[in-house]
Inverse folding.
């Protein structure tokens, strides 16, 4: 008897389940409410079919049979009604979530639908909120970058036109024979060479900055001793410091180890030192220090520029920022790209760069993770 009941109930259940799965496949692109309704109908139908089959054929007869069938029918209707109510609520909150997504615009944030959402939909709502927040931050960064690009184009256009106009005038004077004095001709040639070198450096800076902004800066990190790095940088700018009568001083332990791209980090430090030399008056001093502090190496460049206005401090590392009102740069000023390049290189090393007013000038500071252990042998 038990085996017969199991066989009849199982067989009817399998048939109804197969029909239900086929119907769900046909309706797979429809509303979740319809899907839940089909699931509820299949469940109730399978239960009713088994009970009815057993009641009619084997177990109960007469008035008890009518009672059982009535109870089972009512239970099935109640289950179907509950399924429809749940499905309707899910459809409503799903449509509310869709409406909230459609209401998002560049000037409006994502606002989740009112009321308490089911756990899964609440997770989706939070994920959408985070995604739209990241998109908004990305748009803001893109707008800031676009503004920086426009400012850079304006600055570079000006810096290119001025030396090109001067070189054109000198070349025309030489070609037309207007200038014949050997000393003047030699001076023109020297000035043209200086302007060409300056333009070449500007193009190099533009190329480096474009690599940084495009995320194409590829580092080759290795163990580097900051003492050697500082010494190399100061040796490279010694001629510029001597021409401007600026003293250079270094305070760096020779065995402070970090893991970095020596060429790129050296370029960042050189940009800071050159910037300091250009804005330090004669007989002033530029001091480069490297100290270790709690697993962090702090590499600083202090000058005697007279300080930077507090309002300009947040913009010092922006592209093409020069701060003429604070620094009064001369003819040898750069294109305003050195500090922006330094920031990009430092951030590529997972470090940080900052500037503060200190003493007779300001202090630029690079913070980098300290590589554990002393350096073994040359770096």
């Amino acid at each position: 008897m038990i085996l017969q009941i199991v066989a009849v109930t199982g067989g009817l259940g399998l048939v109804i389940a197969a029909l239900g799965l086929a119907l769900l496949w046909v309706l797979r692109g429809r509303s979740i409410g319809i899907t839940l309704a089909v699931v509820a109908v299949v469940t109730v139908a399978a239960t009713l079919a088994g009970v009815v089959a057993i009641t009619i054929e084997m177990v109960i007869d007469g008035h008890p049979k009518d009672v059982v069938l009535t109870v089972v029918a009512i239970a099935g209707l109640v289950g179907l009604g509950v399924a429809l109510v749940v499905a309707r609520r899910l459809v409503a909150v799903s449509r509310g979530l869709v409406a909230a997504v459609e209401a998002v615009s560049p000037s409006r944030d994502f606002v989740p639908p009112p009321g308490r959402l089911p756990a899964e939909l609440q997770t989706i709502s939070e994920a959408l909120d985070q995604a739209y927040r990241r998109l908004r931050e990305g748009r803001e960064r893109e707008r800031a970058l676009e503004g920086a690009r426009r400012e850079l184009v304006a600055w570079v256009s000006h810096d290119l036109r001025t030396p090109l106009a001067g070189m054109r005038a000198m070349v025309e004077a030489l070609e037309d024979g207007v200038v014949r004095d050997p000393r003047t001709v030699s001076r023109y040639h020297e000035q043209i060479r200086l302007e060409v070198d300056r333009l070449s450096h500007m193009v190099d800076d533009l190329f480096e900055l474009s690599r940084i902004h495009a995320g194409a800066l590829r580092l080759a990190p290795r163990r580097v001793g900051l003492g050697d790095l500082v010494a190399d940088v100061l040796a490279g700018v010694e001629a510029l410091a001597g021409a401007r009568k600026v003293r250079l001083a270094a305070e760096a332990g020779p065995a402070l180890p970090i893991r970095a791209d020596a060429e790129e980090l050296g370029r960042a430090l050189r940009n800071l030192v050159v910037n300091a030399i250009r804005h330090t008056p004669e007989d002033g001093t530029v001091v480069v220090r490297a100290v270790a502090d709690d697993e962090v190496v702090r590499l600083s460049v202090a000058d005697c520029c007279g300080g930077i206005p507090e309002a300009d401090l947040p913009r010092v590392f922006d592209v093409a920022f020069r701060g003429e009102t604070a620094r009064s740069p001369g003819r040898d000023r750069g294109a305003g790209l050195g500090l922006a390049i330094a920031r990009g290189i430092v951030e590529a090393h997972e470090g940080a760069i900052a500037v503060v007013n200190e003493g007779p000038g300001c202090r630029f500071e690079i913070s980098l993770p300290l590589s554990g252990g002393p350096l073994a042998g040359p770096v």
User: Anything to note?
Assistant: The beta strands are 222-225, 247-252, 257-260, 285-293, 296-302, 352-358, 361-369. The two ends are 88 Å apart (CA to CA). Residues 119-175 form the longest helix (57 residues). The chain has three domains: 2-102, 149-213, 222-369.
